[in-house]
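Hi again,

Forgot to attach this to my earlier email, sorry! This is the prediction with pyridoxal-5'-phosphate bound. I've pasted everything inline since the attachment limit keeps bouncing my files.
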Amino acid sequence: MPQGLGSRLVHAGRDDFRTLGVHCPPLDRSTTYPLADLDAGGRDVDRLAEGAHHADSSVYGRLHNPTVARWEDAIAELEHAGGAVAFGSGMAAITAVLLAVGAPRRHVVAVRPLYGGTDHLLTTGILGSRVSWCAPHEVADAIEDDTCLVMVETPGNPTLQLVDIADIVARAGDVPVAVDNTFATPILQRPLDHGAAYSIHSATKYLGGHGDVTAGVVATTPDRCAGVRQVRILTGALLDPQAAWLLHRSLPTLAARVTIAQSSAQVLAERLAAHPAVVRVRYPGMGDSDPDGIVGGQMKGPGAMLAFEVEGGYAAASQVMKAVEMITPAVSLGSVDSLIEHPAALTHRVVDEQARDEHGVTANLLRVSVGMEDVEDLWADLAQALSWAELGDTASDDEEPVGVGS
Ligand SMILES: *Cc1c(COP(=O)(O)O)cnc(C)c1O
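Structure tokens for the complex follow:
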């Protein structure tokens, strides 16, 4: 068993390939499986319904799929978790955790900022839960008799706010803590190592990494895994085997993708901070964004996501989104190509406006997911786009930006 992270990324979930005589994961698209022995089949149904990791027969596609299970095993290994459960989206994964901890009719404590969809899911109470929002140091006071989960995200979407996971776990006491680990990936951060009960991903982002798969995954302890799997069986929020196959294919390059994008993000963050059209940069690799020294400890590196505020408010931010040429103006993140988006108008549009303002999701904030393009090309694109922002309110579509030729 290789121990190095790079080796594990290449071989995780593939340990039995030689026995099987294959070189890439078998893709099993079966919706049902032959059951010659009725007694054995019935026992397998029982085991899977109780949330077992596998049974002799998969019985039915909603109960178990071998291709999906391989990718889950790989994620569990990378997250230092007892197991992992895959879903059709990140939101389905978060919903399953809430249902597994019994959130309906109960209370959840959550730290803002969270991904807009998660914030909305908790705020609307559509699952029947109540939420108390609080700062990290207020978690213990926010816990009530029926609190079933503490939910945090670090780095937080979209402001890259960092949370000390071990500190939250200590404050949460007996209440399980779920960490949305989408931005960090298991390459940079493993929440279970710091006492979290659940590490949740939108695998649509870095784990997929190529903008072509929508998926989610929950990594947790074996007993909690059974509960999450039961929810998946009952609610049917499955990951398609083809998508799992693509996710498994993306895994060997995860560290390379994150590391390359991260080194470009550090350069871009520093240059943005020195740019006259930029008011403020939020990037975990810059001292003022990491007052508690999370980077280098809990989080091995600052990551490849950054956000910045432009001079000139919404109008200027909107100009920058319009002016980028190589960088794609689009929501989502973690892909090989760089993306830029406006959180207040797009991903966090559903969040209460006052809460957005309080947590820095302002009208002049842009979020960049740095991809694998050459850093000088990325900087050239951002710099030419920012020259449009410097025109401010006077800019119109047919004007040339200052200092940039056609
Ligand atoms: C995108 C995202 C989600 C939601 O994931 P989907 O795959 O879109 O359902 C949850 N958390 C974070 C941090 C995200 O960026």
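Residues 89-91, 115, 117-118, 153, 157, 180, 182, 202, 204-205, 214, 216 surround pyridoxal-5'-phosphate (CB under 6 Å). DSSP finds 15 helices and twelve strands in the chain.

That should be everything now.

G.
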